[in-house]
């Protein structure tokens, strides 16, 4: 005889759905990152892997009309392996709440400067005292130049970012720097 199942309060069901969504997106991050590692090892082209708020970043792209973006894993693979990183393209790989950006620079500092220059010197990172820290680009910045970073760390940092995106909304997330 089966036990009568206990119905969870509504808040718990909502939390379960959020957790499931986070797990799906974190798993998507794992797949993206694994694919990038493979492409990186085949090409040896330096790049920095960045997670940003999808809404905030799209607002910047719309505002400044940046046209150096391409979408998709296969386009990114072609750029790294066949074209050997011959241009300053940025690749965007989507999940529901974030863009995964592939920036063709070898360090976090260079990648952030590159993005800031694209957006007419809009400050993207600050010491936490500046209100602009969360206004446009927000999320965690992960350097993967060596392509040797621990996948569990990528998973945990990405999951934390997604949790903030769901709970606070993109305009109020704080920037997290990792491995800088």
From TrEMBL:
SUPFAM superfamilies: Nucleotide cyclase (SSF55073). It comes from the Bacteria. Gene3D superfamilies: 3.30.70.270. InterPro entries: Nucleotide_cyclase (IPR029787), Rev_trsase/Diguanyl_cyclase (IPR043128). This is GGDEF domain-containing protein. It comes from Peribacillus faecalis. The lineage of its organism: Bacteria, Bacillati, Bacillota, Bacilli, Bacillales.
